[in-house]
Amino acid sequence: MVTLTTERLILRPLTLDDTDALLAVWGDAETMRYYPSTLNREQMVARIEAQIERYATGTGQLAVLLRDSGELIGGCGPVWHEVEGVQELEVGYHIRRDHWGRGYAPEAARAVLDHARVTLQKDDCISLIRLENYPSRRAAEKNGAVLEKIVHWRDYDHCVYRYLQAGFSGQR
């Protein structure tokens, strides 16, 4: 997996050394309110190991770091999911709560979308977002994603936001 850079962020492959920093995201009840539960240390290690395995396919969540300090503030990356019988490349993002509202999620997602288009030759991607998660929906919309449909996925209703190739690069 590659390292991606933006104006304010570095996205790099995860390592097990990132466990504590990621627990500040995935272990926070407020950040994870649209997920079934928070993660404990053992679950976080398993999630990181799963991402590391995905890197062989050119996909997987990346660590999101602030360029100016190197501080890890979240994760973002492309991951394959089956949605209604179709394999879809989903761009997911999670930013630590004390960094919400600064545009880091859409900025990280733009870098991942450009990577998917150029490196993975993927003409379109999706983001799966719970209906009531308006901040994440807005982040997807900032990058030109269009609400395509609502599906029942992993026990919850989710919006399927689709990013089309024309909307990837240069959107702000």
Protein traits:
single chain, 172 residues, alpha+beta, Aminopeptidase, five-stranded antiparallel β-sheet, three-stranded antiparallel β-sheet
Architecture overview:
- By secondary structure, the protein is of the alpha+beta class.
- The chain has a single domain, classed as Gcn5-related N-acetyltransferase (GNAT) (Aminopeptidase), CATH 3.40.630.
- It has four helices and eight strands.
- A five-stranded antiparallel β-sheet has the order 1-2-3-4-5, sandwiched between helices. Strands 6-8-7 form a three-stranded antiparallel β-sheet.
- The chain is globular, with a radius of gyration of 15 Å.
- The chain starts with a strand and ends in an 8-residue tail after the last strand.
Which CATH first-tier class would you pick?
Answer: Alpha Beta
Strand tally, please? 8
SSE topology string: EEHHEEEHEHEE
CATH fold label: Aminopeptidase
Shape annotation: globular
Q: Report the uncertain regions.
A: none
Share of helix among residues? 25-40%
Total discrete domains: 1
CATH level-two architecture: 3-Layer(aba) Sandwich
Strand count, sense and barrel status of the largest sheet are: 5 strands, antiparallel
- Enumerate the strands of the largest sheet in spatial order, edge to edge or round the barrel: 1-2-3-4-5
> What would you report as the Rg, rounded to the nearest angstrom?
15 Å
Number of contiguous helices: 4
End-to-end gap = 25 Å
Beta-strand residue percentage: 25-35%
Mean pLDDT: 93
> Which structural class is indicated by helix and strand composition?
alpha+beta
What is the name of the CATH superfamily? Gcn5-related N-acetyltransferase (GNAT)
Protein name: Acetyltransferase, GNAT family
Domain N-acetyltransferase: 9-166
InterPro entries: Acyl_CoA_acyltransferase, GNAT_dom, N-acetyltransferase
GO molecular function, one term: acyltransferase activity, transferring groups other than amino-acyl groups
